[in-house]
Amino acid sequence: MLAYIIRRVLQMIPTIFGVMLLVFILFSVVGGDPSLILGGKHLTEEVLNNIRTQLGLDKSLPEQFLIFVKQVLTLDFGTSWSTQQPVSQMIASRVGPSLTLTGALLAVSLLVSIPLAALVAYFRGGVTDRIVTIACTVAMSISALVYIVVGQYFLAYELAWFPVRGWGDSLFTNLMVYVPLPLLMGLMVSIGPDIRFYRSFFIEEMNNDYVRTARAKGLSESKIMLKHVLRNAMIPVVTNVMMALPFLMMGALILESFFGIPGMGNEVLLAVNKSDFPVIKAVTIYIAIATMIFNLLADLVYKLIDPRVQLK
């Protein structure tokens, strides 16, 4: 196990280097000169040269890439070009609100979708299965914007059950006051695809030979479902969850924008609009590193779920 972990960590090094090279080419070579955007409409040659010097764009491309490599190794991406604040400080202040919303959304979605998916798979082909499947299909066909606008108007504005938008300084206040409505809207969007996705894996496991053997031995359906089917179907569930975890720090772009949540989603949108490359590059590198780490954790969880899994 330890040798496998060390080998996987060593494999991350060339992957990170490849990501850094790709990001640098996209932003520094293909992306054009951001000083033209930051300089505004009335840009003179002197102002342009000053901006390029301040941003380090007057250096050669190899020098700029070495600076970028140093930033990645130290996780210090300098200052934002638009706000002149340290990038690490900006991200640290925005990740909290994003994780508060997306973390709660992921947890509640799993608690709701997995039991419902197991239930409809258990009653597959019956009335319950058909009703839930139709409801999921209808929910998936409605735009997220429709959920948000209707939810804000009726639940927040008309009924005054929730604030229309806002964010506080207390985690408890945010979870109790400001998170519930965007959480509900996020569930309306995600619950349908999740139930149908997990249902397919439960049904696939229930059609395997080991389930028929368990029935032949006289085991009850509930015991088969909980002890055998649920455990074996958890591998694709874990894969789906682990792939979603790195993007939690990105927040929910639409939800944060409509509900006034000061998270990473809003920050990334502003960075893209203002060509704030240090912020965009930092977020890209963080997500790449988090993705590799959670992929490794997913493999380790597979081994815990099923000891027969071979780690290669």
Describe this structure in words.
This protein is an all-alpha fold and 312 residues long. Helices cover 76% and strands 0% of the residues. The model has no long low-confidence stretch (mean pLDDT 80).
Summarize the structure.
By secondary structure, the protein is mostly helical.
What are the SSEs and their pairings?
Layout lengths: L1 H29 L4 H4 L6 H11 L5 H14 L12 H36 L4 H14 L3 H15 L12 H8 L1 H27 L2 H8 L4 H24 L8 H7 L4 H10 L3 H29 L7
List keywords for this structure.
globular; mainly alpha; 312 residues
Mean pLDDT: 80
General shape: globular
Gyration radius over CA? 24 Å
Biggest sheet architecture: none
What's the N-to-C terminus distance? 10 Å
The low-confidence runs, each spanning 5 or more residues with pLDDT under 50, are: none
Helix content: over 70%
The total of beta strands comes to 0
Question: Helix count?
Answer: 14
Q: What structural class do helix, strand and pairing data support?
A: mainly alpha
Percent strand: under 5%
How do the helices and strands follow one another from N- to C-terminus? Answer: HHHHHHHHHHHHHH
